[in-house]
Amino acid sequence: MNAPSFMDLALEAAEKAGNSGEVPIGCVIVRDNAVIATAGNRTLTDRDPTAHAEMLALRQAAERIGSERLIDCDLYVTLEPCTMCAGAISFARVRRLYYGAADPKGGAVESGVRFFAQPTCHHVPEVYSAVGEGRAAGLLKDFFKARR
Fold first, then answer.
1. Helix (H/G/I), strand (E/B), else coil: 99
2. Phi/psi-derived region of residue 7, left when phi > 0, alpha when psi is between -120 and 50, beta in every other case
3. Catalytic positions, please?
4. Nearest 5 degrees, angle CA 92-CA 51-CA 116?
5. CB of 140 within 8 A of CB of 79?
6. Residue 47 CB burial class (10 angstroms; 0-12, 13-18, ≥19)
């Protein structure tokens, strides 16, 4: 059996979040080909509107490496980041962003405000979309279908 990819690990974090009642979004941050942070959404658990998977993983990674600048780091997330998360990714100077499902309603990378395309954006990561898109979209669809 093949070792899980970094997006597979983000998807596992998303599943855990979903199993605890959170919107199933997961994030993994990698440096030197090693995972340095993993998080799933915790907005309900923490009663914190900023507790998105990306925000939690960025905080964890910064603490782990002892710097708010994640220059040599790559971020894998199961859903296109929102404006808040895109801003944090830019401020952290993340090298590459890989995301699974597009989010036409709340996304801010290739949807909505297209944060990284704005002249006020100081750092733009390399962006790779649709990585693990089918599984990521399926997790979200199943989660919301079960709640309707």
1. strand
2. alpha
3. 54
4. 40
5. yes
6. exposed
Q: How far is CA 68 from the centre of its chain?
A: 17
Residue 54 CA to residue 89 CA, distance in Å, equals: 8
Read off the pTM: 0.95
Amino acid at 34: A
Q: What is the pLDDT along the chain (148 residues), one digit of tens a residue?
A: 455 699 999 999 999 999 999 999 999 999 999 999 999 999 999 999 999 999 999 999 999 999 999 999 999 999 999 999 999 999 999 999 999 999 999 999 999 999 999 999 999 999 999 888 899 999 999 999 887 7
d(CA 40, CA 59): 13
